[in-house]
TrEMBL record:
<dbReference type="InterPro" id="IPR000823">
    <property type="entry name" value="Peroxidase_pln"/>
</dbReference>
<dbReference type="GO" id="GO:0005576">
    <property type="term" value="C:extracellular region"/>
</dbReference>
<dbReference type="GO" id="GO:0042744">
    <property type="term" value="P:hydrogen peroxide catabolic process"/>
</dbReference>
<feature type="binding site">
    <location>
        <position position="92"/>
    </location>
    <ligand>
        <name>Ca(2+) 1</name>
    </ligand>
</feature>
<keyword id="KW-1015">Disulfide bond</keyword>
<feature type="binding site">
    <location>
        <position position="271"/>
    </location>
    <ligand>
        <name>Ca(2+) 2</name>
    </ligand>
</feature>
<protein>
    <recommendedName>
        <fullName>Peroxidase</fullName>
        <ecNumber>1.11.1.7</ecNumber>
    </recommendedName>
</protein>
<dbReference type="GO" id="GO:0006979">
    <property type="term" value="P:response to oxidative stress"/>
</dbReference>
<feature type="binding site">
    <location>
        <position position="111"/>
    </location>
    <ligand>
        <name>Ca(2+) 1</name>
    </ligand>
</feature>
<dbReference type="InterPro" id="IPR019793">
    <property type="entry name" value="Peroxidases_heam-ligand_BS"/>
</dbReference>
<dbReference type="InterPro" id="IPR010255">
    <property type="entry name" value="Haem_peroxidase_sf"/>
</dbReference>
<feature type="binding site">
    <location>
        <position position="98"/>
    </location>
    <ligand>
        <name>Ca(2+) 1</name>
    </ligand>
</feature>
<feature type="domain" description="Plant heme peroxidase family profile">
    <location>
        <begin position="47"/>
        <end position="348"/>
    </location>
</feature>
<keyword id="KW-0575">Peroxidase</keyword>
<dbReference type="GO" id="GO:0140825">
    <property type="term" value="F:lactoperoxidase activity"/>
</dbReference>
<keyword id="KW-0560">Oxidoreductase</keyword>
<feature type="binding site">
    <location>
        <position position="268"/>
    </location>
    <ligand>
        <name>Ca(2+) 2</name>
    </ligand>
</feature>
């Protein structure tokens, strides 16, 4: 702990003098101005474009944002769910809204019923509401995959008070394949160690920096006790979790969670409804739920990134915006490779 404290102090001091300026990470607000592209049709690396619907459905992004803002203001937990929904969609079959498909006679086990998604994944009703509004305004124009991407961006903006607001390229098409087994194969569980996490992200074209930055989304939302109790995180003799947090969690979680008895707990007890860099301070203080969270201190590279994100104002929000756009470009379907669903829950 003494060595970690020294590392924290040293890196914070170094960054305040040199590296933040050298990397162009100022202390200003990276919000809606923020240096990100203006909403005009600007190509992105995945064949997508910022402002994709400017001509075909000029109010598309405003419609989605209005629905998301209303939902998140009523229940901040839905915002956390929408951010997670984008991650869980993109890591399976790419960012193609495959996670939204309901079970059918032909496909009884789609992604949304896979253990990593059911019953914890949420926000589906917000996507439905946005799709209904868009179909009324611009029938058959805006894909469900783009709605998921816009909703993840807009939830980030609301929960961060505008500090993580950014342009989101669009032009995705919706996929027709959804498999529960694929979700199990590609979604990294909270029990993963650092090498497993790194490999999982690399398989989707994301690097270690993306891993550290996107893990920061655990600063909002709740988790089922079953996501960490079985990994020994509450074992006082073996876990590196802060004993005070572990004791609190033991009072909230059953020793052996079941489907009928699996409460949820806050992922960040300090600022639970705010998308901010508090997560990284929690990691340093060992006030995190998952093995995958604690794993960020297991290498010098990731530990240094945790320290910088924790102590440099505005740095994480800028990184998060870029990482979200990168993640939302995973294996996208464009043109004839997909469709634009009329109903996000079923293929056309």
């Amino acid at each position: 702990m003494a060595r970690l404290a020294a590392l924290t102090t040293l890196l914070a001091l170094l960054c305040s003098v040199t590296c933040c300026q050298a990397e162009g990470y100022g202390y200003g607000d990276p919000g809606s101005g923020g240096g990100y592209p203006s909403p005009s049709p600007t190509p992105s690396g995945a064949g997508l474009a910022v402002g994709f619907y400017r001509d075909a459905c000029p109010n598309a992004e405003a419609i989605v944002r209005g629905v998301v803002e209303k939902a998140v203001e009523q229940n901040p937990g839905v915002g956390a769910g929408l951010i997670r929904l984008l991650f869980h969609d993109c890591f399976v079959q790419g960012c193609d809204a495959s996670v939204l498909l309901d079970p059918t006679a032909a496909n009884a086990q789609p992604e949304k019923l896979s253990p990593p998604n059911f019953p914890s994944l949420r926000g589906f009703e917000v996507i439905d509401a946005a799709k209904a509004a868009l179909e009324a305004a611009c029938p058959g124009t805006v894909s469900c995959a783009d709605i998921v991407a816009f909703a993840g961006r807009d939830a980030s903006a609301v929960l961060s008070d505008g500090r993580a607001d950014f342009a989101m390229p669009a032009g995705r098409r919706d996929g027709r394949v959804s498999s529960a087994s694929d979700a199990l194969q590609f979604l990294p569980p909270p029990s993963f160690n650092l090498s497993e996490l790194t490999a999982s992200f690399a398989a989707k074209g994301l690097d270690t920096n993306d891993l550290v930055v996107l893990s920061g989304a655990h600063t909002v939302g709740r988790s089922h006790c079953s996501s960490f109790v079985g990994d020994g995180r509450l074992n006082a003799s073996t876990s590196d979790m802060n004993p005070a947090l572990a004791a609190s969690l033991r009072g909230q979680c059953p020793a052996n969670p079941t489907a009928a008895n699996d409460p949820t707990v806050l992922q960040d007890v300090v600022t639970p409804n705010k998308l901010d860099s508090q997560y990284y301070k929690n990691v340093l203080n060992r006030n995190v739920l998952f093995t995958s969270d604690a794993a960020l201190l297991k290498s010098g590279q990731t530990a240094a990134a945790v320290v910088l994100n924790a102590f440099v104002p505005g740095l994480w929000e800028q990184k998060f915006a870029k990482a979200m756009v990168k993640m939302a470009s995973i294996e996208v379907k464009t043109g004839a490779n997909g469709e634009i669903r009329r109903n996000c829950r079923v293929v056309n």
